[in-house]
Specification:
The chain has about 60 residues and is mostly helical. The protein has one domain. It has 2 helices and no strands. The longest helix has 11 residues. It is globular and about 35 Å long.
Length: about 60
Amino acid sequence: MTARTPSTSAAAPGIRLSPAERTEFKQALRPVLALPPDRRDRPYRRFVEAANALRGWEL
């Protein structure tokens, strides 16, 4: 089990990533968000907000 540390992201305070998980997540980010047209099929808003915050995007 990996130790979790509090997130430093103000956009998604409920998501906690270890430094290694944060690095892995940032490396896997794509430059564009491709969201399904049907909102029911989209990821949770907090996940999108966390990804945007890690990219440095403020929407």
